[in-house]
Design goal:
Blueprint (H helix, E strand, L loop, with lengths): L3 E8 L5 H11 L14 H13 L1 E8 L2 E8 L8 H9 L3 E7 L6 H12 L3 E7 L8 H12 L7 E2 L8 H11 L12 E10 L3 E10 L1 E3 L3 E4 L5 E3 L2 E5 L3 E4 L1 E3 L3 E5 L13 E4 L18 E7 L5 H13 L5 E7 L3 E8 L2 H15 L3 E3 L3 E2 L1 E5 L4 E4 L11 E16 L3 H10 L3 E9 L2 E9 H15 L4 E13 L1 E8 L2 E2 L5 E4 L3 H15 L7 E7 L2 E8 L15 H16 L1 E4 L2 E4 H4 L7
Parallel strand pairs: 1-3, 1-4, 4-5, 5-6
Antiparallel strand pairs: 2-3, 7-8, 7-16, 8-15, 9-14, 10-11, 10-16, 12-13, 12-15, 17-19, 17-20, 17-21, 18-19, 22-23, 22-24, 24-26, 24-27, 25-26, 28-29, 28-30, 28-31, 31-32, 33-34
Helix pairs in contact: 1-6, 7-8
This protein binds guanosine-5'-triphosphate (GTP).
Guanosine-5'-triphosphate binds next to helix 1.
Length: 593
Amino acid sequence: MNHIRNFCIIAHIDHGKSTLADRLLEYTKTIQVTEGQMLDNMDLERERGITIKSHAIQMEYMYNGENYILNLIDTPGHVDFSYEVSRSIAACEGALLVVDATQGVQAQTISNLYMAIDHNLEIIPVINKIDMPSAMPDEVEDEIIDLIGCERSDIIRASGKTGEGVEDILNAVVARIPHPQGDERAPLQALIFDSVFNSFRGIIAYFKIENGTIRKGDKVKFFNTGMEYVADEVGVLKMDMIPCGELSTGNVGYIISGIKDSKEVKVGDTITHVARPCEKAIEGFQEVKPMVFAGVYPIDPSEYENLRASLEKLQLNDASLTFSPESSIALGFGFRCGFLGLLHMEIVQERLDREFNMDVITTVPNVSYMCYDKQGGEKEVHNPSGLPEQTMIDHIEEPYIRASIITAADYIGPIMTLCLDKRGELIDQQYVSGNRVELHFMLPLGEIVIDFYDKLKSISKGYASFDYHIDCFRPSKLAKLDILLNGEPVDALSTLTHQDNAVVFGRRMCEKLKELIPRQQFDIAIQAAIGAKIVARETIKCVRKDVTAKCYGGDVSRKRKLLEKQKKGKKRMKQIGNVEVPQKAFLAVLKLD
Ligand SMILES: Nc1nc2c(ncn2[C@@H]2O[C@H](COP(=O)(O)OP(=O)(O)OP(=O)(O)O)[C@@H](O)[C@H]2O)c(=O)[nH]1
């Protein structure tokens, strides 16, 4: 245990986390480098891919003549995943805080740092990219000292490109980060911080042992699910999984135990022995509750079962994703998926496309509402079309978040305006350091879901870190806005919005849809309605598009080719009534000016 160090790297996006991690792996000969290898070399790229996906990797390092085991645990870097970041951080005793020498301290540097400090991690500040001509290491050093109050000599200057400083970093990991604590003789208590699905081996869970020892063949129990398994294989993670007979306190490893169902493995759960269980689970386990919901529908209806299988596999290393079947008059059969936030939703959509080759349509996201009816009943509503009749509703409550925004003082004005515009209330503001200010707001989550990040980023020139947690539900005057295409309501385009904004919102939706839906061979009326009342209308004029017109009537095969091409183009469209609607129209609400 004295010779183990568990650490992570935290950084603002693009400050060089992955490049530096690769250098550490090369220096410790965990991955092989051939001479003169460049970053863009295919092999290295491939290995990088593995290192990034492996989530935890073990290195061996000699320091003062003794061999140490260094476990590098990867952390995702975005606010939507703060739960997962905190799980990974909980498995470490120290963190490298990497700051780009050309950029200085940035928003995510601060929010990730705070999380590491909350978990009492030893922080090793590293200034990266010092090889660059535009590097300003002295200024960045001042900023870091300002931020964490360390000594100038604590800060390591490094370059992921040239490898400078890599040895200093490894030495500091051993010398400064405390070894893990724990009792080897106590009952087994291991924290699951990640899991993946492997098509040959089933589900693989990654854990860190807080107390006790785990051996191959042990009968183990997952504390929060209560499920029991035999540890068919345990081992450590290097470039491959390396099986071993036992792993003891402080170490990081993996377990394979024939688990097939993703629901049985929850990130944050505790593994213990069946025969001699620990008394309680490792603290901090909480079911994450998705707050943003959207419909996900296969473009090709016959892909429905494949979509279900893909979502199940995704759920494995993304414990926060939820889904349940739903159907839409407009889109057919699909799933209502729950996400932690909008970025999480985008990532799931991208992974469905890239890793599972699924073509899907995602509908307008909305938050989870509580609806109280006049009989005193209450119901959680994840979809505007799930709301009872207006006359039956007593009132609706929407989730509010407590948001913390850290920014430079220059941007306070525009950020205030943005938040007030989004129905926010300022709670307080305080100086953090230098001219950095922290603002706290109460904001309706529904307003954040739509285009808050992008606006915040642009008005603050990227220099605003944003973090939030759900605070409470509050009654709100919400109206359901329906969109009709040629008189047909399109359920997938319905949204809930604040009554005061509903008419303007309806008008903007109609205008945006007019831009996004291509002209067809007949006029299309786009209407916005609240209940039976039409509040806005736009018309898309017809066009007669004869794609074969330029073929002079002669060449039949050319004509056929053109028609086929046109048919392909239509695939990414969804037929609603007689109107063809492209995917981007379903997200029109996100693109309102
Ligand atoms: N010149 C120079 N470029 C670097 C250095 N470290 C990283 N880079 C470049 O900076 C860019 C970002 O590096 P990454 O390692 O992908 O950064 P990251 O923090 O892992 O980025 P994300 O994973 O997207 O958060 C890449 O183009 C790297 O080649 C360095 O020390 N010097």
